[in-house]
């Protein structure tokens, strides 16, 4: 379902469609939007394949700012240029901002209530589960990767160990493992293209 040819895949039909699609994504994103945006863009709307989403998400992560906002801007710009980027970003932020401000006003004097504290801790656990589940789904987009399955697992393991065990700052992980992985993938793909050219 996620590997449809370009001709069979749909995209946003208008700026209005793009705006309200990202508004709907954002309003579902309690505890984190990443899991929701993957399901909506890849599985439901089929605007992206799993591999395309993974590539766009990687770019969104290395850019400054919130990952999901970066992804929305990339998607909007690809479809409708600068107007699309603005429409997607506005859709992602407008209605949730209203909801957050309303909740902040309502909960301001209730943060010390044990029931409210328990609710917030429960949301944190659910958020972690959503992110872990989405990470497992994204592995399907690595099929046919230049590193192969073993290389992808090794690089993911190094990244996880650096972040969770060694507490290496994100910027150093990106500069170290990210740049190294990018250069290595480029080298492998270049060698494959050269070998294919000689074979022909």
Description:
By secondary structure, the chain is mainly alpha-helical. The protein folds into two domains: 1-143, no CATH class; 145-200, no CATH class. It is 76% helix and 0% strand. It has helices at 15-28, 34-44, 50-62, 67-107, 114-138, 148-165, 170-199.
In short:
With 200 residues, this protein is mainly α. Helices cover 76% and strands 0% of the residues. The N terminus is likely disordered.
Q: How many domains in all?
A: 2
Q: What are the secondary-structure elements, in order, as H or E?
A: HHHHHHH
N→C terminal distance? 33 Å
DSSP strand tally: 0
The helix tally amounts to 7
Reported for the largest beta sheet, the result is: none
- Radius of gyration equals 20 Å
- Mean pLDDT value: 81
Form type: globular
Poorly predicted residue ranges: 1-8
Strand content: under 5%
Helicity range: over 70%
Which structural class is indicated by helix and strand composition? Answer: mainly alpha
Draw up the topology in text.
Elements: H1 15-28, H2 34-44, H3 50-62, H4 67-107, H5 114-138, H6 148-165, H7 170-199
Helix pairs in contact: 1-4, 2-5, 3-4, 6-7
Features:
single chain; 200 residues; mainly alpha; globular
């Amino acid at each position: 379902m996620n590997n449809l040819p370009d001709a069979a895949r749909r995209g946003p039909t208008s700026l209005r469609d793009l705006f309200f699609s990202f508004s709907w994504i954002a309003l579902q994103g309690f505890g984190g939007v990443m899991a929701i945006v993957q399901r909506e863009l890849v599985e439901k709307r089929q605007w992206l394949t799993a591999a395309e989403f993974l590539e766009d998400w990687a770019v969104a992560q290395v850019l400054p700012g919130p990952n999901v906002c970066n992804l929305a801007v990339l998607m909007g710009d690809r479809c409708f240029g600068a107007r699309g980027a603005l429409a997607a970003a506005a859709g992602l932020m407008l209605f949730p901002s209203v909801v957050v401000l309303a909740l902040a006003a309502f909960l301001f004097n209730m943060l010390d209530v044990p029931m409210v504290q328990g609710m917030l801790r429960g949301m944190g656990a659910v958020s972690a589960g959503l992110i872990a589940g989405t990470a497992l789904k994204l592995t399907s987009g690595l099929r046919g990767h230049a590193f192969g399955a073993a290389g992808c697992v090794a690089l993911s393991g190094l990244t996880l160990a650096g972040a969770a065990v060694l507490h290496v700052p994100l910027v150093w992980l990106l500069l170290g493992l990210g740049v190294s992985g990018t250069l290595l993938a480029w080298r492998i793909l270049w060698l494959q293209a050269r070998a294919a050219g000689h074979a022909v």
